[in-house]
Write a structure and sequence with these properties.
By secondary structure, the protein is of the alpha+beta class. The protein has 3 domains: 66 residues; 156 residues, Proliferating Cell Nuclear Antigen (Box), CATH 3.70.10; 142 residues, DNA Polymerase III, Chain A, domain 2 (Roll), CATH 3.10.150. The chain has 12 helices and 18 strands. Strands 6-2-3-4-18-17-16-10-14 form a 9-stranded antiparallel β-sheet. Helix 2 runs antiparallel to helix 3. The protein is elongated. InterPro entries: Rad1_Rec1_Rad17, TMEM258/Ost5. Belongs to the OST5 family. Belongs to the rad1 family. Keywords: DNA damage, DNA repair, Exonuclease, Hydrolase, Membrane, Nuclease, Nucleus, Transmembrane, Transmembrane helix. GO terms for molecular function: exonuclease activity.
Amino acid sequence: MSSPLVDVWEAAASSPFSPAIGKNTQFTVGFVLLAISLVLTTLFGMNQSLVNLPVLGVPASLAFGFGAVYMICAVGVYVYTMDQDEPPTLTAVSGSARQLYLLLRCIAFSNKAHVHISDIGIKLAVDEASVMEASAFLDKSLFTTYTFNALAPLHNSQHSDSDDESEPPSTTTPAFQISLPALLETLQIFGLTDPSTSKPPWARDAPYPTSTAFTGNNILGGMNNLCRISYYGPGAPLAVTLTEASIRTQCDLTTYEPEYADEIPFDRQALALKVIMRGSWLYDAIQELSSTSPEKLTMYAKTVRGKPFFALASSGTLGSARVEFNNQPQPSAFRTPVSTNFNVNSETGDQAANLLETFQLSDPHTVLRSSYKFNLIQKAARAMNVATKVSIRADTQGVLSLQFMIEVESGLSSSQTATGNATGGKVSFVDFRFVPLVEEDDEEGDAGDADETIIHNGTGSGEESGDQDMLS
């Protein structure tokens, strides 16, 4: 049964509106009416009488009014046509709006998002009080079609000389701000949902399971959900067009001038710590620590008996808690996340995968300790929940970087996937950066005792295992 709204659209498409005066002749008609009004006004001024008022005065006023309207409409159509003749700065088409919604929802803790468009993709960044920032990069491989036309820089005649004219013209990448909640509402206008919210915890490691006969897209007959993003230039809106079945919706999002703020400095060449682990394990740890209503999160790292040791501790009004991650084979008195990988390697004899896939510490003989505001770390929980892996990095200044690797669907539509034209899932990254808290003198004394307690608990009581170290 067809929708009444669709029937109305089809009926309107069969009888399009045609103005009495075409767009190409509005300028001529408006000019003629203005000329007539000028002549009639002159004649009425020369013969001012009550008899000439309906004969000359009223027609002059009507001619001037209609002529002015037609002239304004003609100029507006001309400017719009000139703008449309120029190619848009960005035209990107994705076969699924859900993958874009999944990535952008990870950084949805701010009202405004900075958008940077380049020839390799679209970057959306948000920040909070210059102590936390997050960015999601939509690589061009996520789109079936991605066309970028760089903007030519504005030429300033005051600084033009012979040297400048000899240089080749450079291009600029557009940057602007948009309302992030409005963009998310647009992407889920057809009722899109986050697939991770409908899965049990044990299924989070497989974000996109094998398609079955009961999959939503198959039940709906492989319904398309195309998303087209276009941007014409500075001052123009960001147009998002969604198409599902026979329904097509276009939303024009207002763009704002960008607020240029310095990024949080992070020195990738001077890393004090680098840890790679599963994102779901970090998510579970943060969820457990949040039960004590903590104000700050403290991170510990050290090499204990040749094995990596990583711990997260928090304290709040309801108590204190910590979660320890280590690759030691002996059981520990403290809870560590249980691996969901039940594959056993017969050659090495490992019964479970290491919790820490990568552990690099600049100074293995000292305890690395750094504290951060817990409520800021908790804002990355959505990214932790959907991420396959997370890279935890800290530089020598204490700045924390959380880089999440998220597997998304390919940019093809569901119908193309069903016919076997899909090339598999894609990988995208979401980055978070946090500024560390400054420890006071009295807190440093208490922290020393806590360091000794945590490291002592992490050593264990068993003998050192003969397994090979997993450090890379």
